[in-house]
Amino acid sequence: MSAPAAQPPLQLDRTRAKRRAAWRRRGMVAAFMSPWILGFTIFFAYPLVMTAYLSFTHYDLLGSPRWIGLANYRYLFTTDQTVWPAVKNTLWFIAIAVPLQALFALGIALMLSRARRGVGVFRTVFYLPALAPPVAATLGFVYLLNPATGPVNTLLGKVGIEGPLWFDSPQWAKPSLTLLALWGIGNTMIIFLAAVLDVPRHLYESAELDGAGAFARMRYVTLPTISPVILFAVVIGVIEGLQYFTQAYVAASVAGGSATYSAEAANSLGYPEDSTLFYPVLLYQQGFRYFNMGYASAMAMLLLAVAFAVTFVIVHNSRRFVHYQAPGR
User: Fold this and answer.
1) Which of 83, 194, 180 is CA-nearest to residue 137?
2) Orientation angle between helical segments 119-127 and 186-197, nearest 10 degrees
3) Which CATH architecture has domain 81-320?
C-alpha cells in the first residue's frame, strides 16, 4: 500500500492559522470570563470544598484539623438534642411565613395593577421597606412590638385589648418575625407586579366574552399565566427560609436584653425558650460561640443538601401546575 500523500504546505498553513485563531478566541473568552471564574473559585468553589473537608474533621480554629470521619454527622443525626427544635422552627417558618409572603406580595401586586391614580406613589410606599437594612428593620419592629412600652400595645390598650408579649413570648415570637417578613415583601411584589402587567389583554377579553367574572379571570387567566413567576417566588422563598438568620439573631439578642455582641447576646440566641432558634442560628452558635467548626461545617453541608433536594423536588413537580406561554403568543 502506498503512503498517504503529504498535506500541501499552503493547506497546512491554513490549518495552523485556523487553530491559532480558535485559541485566540478561547483566550479572549477566558479573559472576559476571568473575573467570574476567579470570583466563583475564591468565594464559592474553594469554601465549598473546604467546608466539605472540615465536616469530616475536629477543628476549633486554634489547632490543625483532625480527621474523625463521620463522627460529626453521627452526632448531628443521633445525639445533638438542639437540632430538632431548630429544624422545627425552620420548617414552621417555611410552611407559614413563605406562603404568606407570596400571597401577600401577589395580593398587593394585583391591587396595584388595578389602581388608576397615584400608582407610582403606592408602588414606592410598598417597595420602600425592602430597602431597609435587615438589622435596622428588626430593631424597629422589636421597639414597636415591645410589650411594655411599644406603640402597638399602647394603642391596643387604649381600645381595651391586652396586647401579646410579641418577641418575649414563645408563642408569639415566630408570628412577630412573620409580620416583619410580610412588611418587607417589596422585591417579590415588584416581580409579581411586572408579571401581572405582562398578562396579554386579549386573554382577559376572551374570558369576559365567555362570561367569566373577576374571580374566574384571576383563576383561569392570571394565575396560570404568571405561574412561572409564582414558582420562582416559592423557590427563592424556601431557600431564604432555610437560611433565615439575621432577623432571628437580632430579635433574640435585643429582646433578650442585649443589643450588642457580647456573652449575653450569645446566651440569648433562641430567646425566648428557643422559639427563635432557627437552624442557621444554631449553626452560627456551634461555629462562632463554641468554635466547633468541624461540626458547624457538617451542619452547613446538610443545609446545602436539603436546600438542593427541596429545590429539585419543587422544580421537578412544577410541570403539573406551571404553564409556560408558547413563543410568539
Assistant:
1) 180
2) 140
3) Orthogonal Bundle (1.10)
